[in-house]
Amino acid sequence: MDILDNLKMAVSALLANKLRSSLTMLGITIGNASVIGMVAIGQGAQKLAAEQFQALGPNVLFVSLTSARVRRTASAKAKPLLLEDAQAIARLVPTVAEVAPEIQANQLIAKGKQMFNSPIIGTTGEFLRVRNHQLVQGRFINEVDNKRMNRVVVLGPEISQRLFPEENPIGQQVRIKNISFEVIGILAPKGSLFDSNQDNKAIVPLTTALYQLTGRTSPHGIPVTLISILAKNQESVKGAEFQIKNLLHLLHPTTADDDILISSQNAILETADETNEGLTRMLAAIASVSLLVGGIGVMNIMLVSVTERTQEIGLRKALGATQKDILLQFLIEAVLLAILGGLIGVGVGVGGVTIASMVSSLATSISIPSIVISLSVSGGIGLFFGVFPAKRAAQLNPIIALRSS
């Protein structure tokens, strides 16, 4: 008997017990749908992280002091990260295109009776290009604003919407730490980067932030929280890291090698990708347990089927069917159950992921390899868990099988 005849007989046997076959496939269906969904969410998270880092700005480096160095700076009056360091990097490091020193703090920002806490960034005009921001209205902070310590502010779109929902914010006054600032510009929306909302911030001149908002002082110069740096191109990022670290060691002779933290966009993205990939594998592994449970269900049902069909098996053997024919028939039934359940599961998984991405902000990405692997695993599970019932059926003595009926 050829495979086609066995396939027809397997389909007939499955259709003869539609409810039982459907319930058997349910475990495989749930397993496949879970795997597709978990992998889609994980890969969507990776894609979202990559997009967010690209929006952060190309070839960006962030220079700061480690927490241990910050504690020593506060306690021993050691030299902090300074505005002069940023200026030296811009002047002496050839692989650097732009440098934007930053002073970061949280302050109360208010207009009328509206008041809330918001991140305040004191910086220079280079910040706009280094951080890859765009303006939708007005202008950005310039060198004159920093020289004169002007009380001007550029608002993120979220703050602008909260303070000025129905009016043009340009030229309006807001209060930061109970000091009036004129709104001169509005940033374009940029979204969130992990737990940091890029649209919820107010930007003021660095000197204004230093002397009028934070009051941070140092006998060594103007202290800054962070230095954002734009390398000239992708190829110069590694060279820029090396040159910046060497320069800072010259400017801060007492600084240990691990005190200076230089983070690149690529390094952060690689870390995020590794984390997301590990999480995706873990979720897929957990979801795969459903496939294993479904496979056990297939084996149980096939064992029941063998018991119920002993007369049929004995009759086929009496008519000349070999052990190989019987084995092949029951194997085909088991694999068919698993593959059909897998196909339905893929459909449910893809449909669920598509609907979820349409009705929510959930980031998802359908993975063709995960679909192929899921279906292959389903078929393999059907084959693996179908071997024992099929061998049991093939080894039945035809005389005993006919008498047992």
Using brief descriptors, characterize the structure shown.
405 residues, two-stranded antiparallel ribbon, alpha+beta, 14 helices, 59% helix
Approximate strand percentage: 15-25%
The count of DSSP E runs of length 2 or more, i.e. the number of strands, is 12
| Average of per-residue pLDDT values | 80
Helix share bin? 55-70%
Low-confidence stretches: none
As for the number of domains, it is: 2
Which strands sit side by side, in order, in the main sheet?
Answer: 2-3-10-5-7-6
State the helix count.
14
Distance between the termini: 24 Å
Q: Could you tell me the radius of gyration in angstroms? A: 33 Å
**SSE pattern, N- to C-terminal:** HHEHHEEHEHEHEEEEEHEHEHHHHH
Largest sheet entry: 6 strands, mixed, barrel
State the shape: elongated
Q: What's the quaternary structure here?
A: single chain
Main location: membrane
Subcellular location: Cell membrane
Pfam families: FtsX (PF02687), MacB_PCD (PF12704)
Transmembrane segments: 282-306, 327-360, 366-388
